[in-house]
């Protein structure tokens, strides 16, 4: 999972809810098959900051990867190979901006801010 740190600021939730959400992310980040990457503010502008999306990859080989994105007028599921490939490339670029150790440190700092 790769997110932008802006996701954790200014959300319409109480400090307690935000702290619990961040604690849950820290918990699952310890699982062997899970990676939680947070792109820091210092990364500056990047593709994920202006066009949030969710990339779905399924275990079953017969199910193609798809992308879910929200737009002003609703939501879209993208399944065209070119769209999916572009979003995978964007995800990969975002992941390069967020190391696992730095992401955990950033999440821990944010958790303390919500305490």
Q: Can I get a quick summary?
A:
With 115 residues, this protein is α+β, with helices and mostly antiparallel strands.
Distance between the termini: 24 Å
Strand residues, percent = 15-25%
Radius of gyration: 15 Å
Order of helices and strands: EHEHEEEHH
The poorly predicted ranges are none
> Number of helical runs?
4
Structural class: alpha+beta
Assign an overall shape. Answer: globular
Main sheet overview: 3 strands, antiparallel
- Mean pLDDT equals 85
Question: What order do the strands of the largest sheet run in, or round the barrel if closed?
Answer: 3-4-5
Q: Please estimate the helix content.
A: 40-55%
Count the beta strands: 5
Oligomer state equals: single chain
Query: Please, how many domains?
Result: 2
Task: Characterize the structure shown.
The mean pLDDT is 85. This protein starts with a strand and ends with a helix. The chain is globular, with a radius of gyration of 15 Å. The protein folds into two domains: 1-46 and 98-115, no CATH class; 50-96, no CATH class. The protein is built from four helices and five strands; from the N terminus they run βαβαβββαα. A hairpin with a 2-residue loop joins β4 and β5. It has helices spanning 15-28, 47-50, 81-96, 100-113; strands spanning 2-4, 37-39, 53-56, 66-71, 74-78. A three-stranded antiparallel β-sheet has the order 3-4-5, with helices on one face. A two-stranded parallel ribbon has the order 1-2. The chain is α+β, with helices and mostly antiparallel strands.
